[in-house]
Amino acid sequence: MTKSNFFKSVLLLSVFSFFTACSNDDDNTSGTANLETKTFSNLYAPQTGGMGTPVGGEFTKFSFSQNAVVTNDTWDIAFRGTTIIVNGGTSIGITDEPTRTGNGAVSIISNTLDAVTTIPNASTFNQDGTNTYAIPTGSGNGWYNYDGATNLVTPIAGKVFVVKTHDGKYAKMEIISYYKDAPANPEATSLTRYFTFKYVYQPNGTNF
Q: Please, what is the end-to-end C-alpha distance for the chain in angstroms?
């Protein structure tokens, strides 16, 4: 090979490598290629009181990025009984409420988890505030229905919660069960206050 042909080969290889690298970068700009649907089972959310007495007890705090219950300020949502709060906004004014240190918010969508592929408009997101929950409490108004005859709490099908995390990322979540081990047909004797939910965490803050 002549010196001229050698340099031409090197140049062509460099150009090919450059465009290959650019193509790979373009393929991953959406950040959706490696997203994973995860299931977190049996998150225990006990409370004290209830049934006409003051409710209290520490909230169980959860981090989507860590896929774990946490005890520090990196939490995104927190659970106690049927109450779910977000790490954003201001104090609700309830007993044993954790301090909000983040910018979390929630947008509620009627759809399936897989069908939610875009981040909702910013105007649809709500934060907690005085006597206000981003995820409303109460039967039929938030994430569940309560049957007084059977004393059962059932997640409302087709409710997806898009959570803006404490640090400005996003996760979409669907609550599957309020009973330990998520029985298909829970009974009044089933162990309660054990959340099972599916979610997808988007670390790039873009669409799902």
A: 51
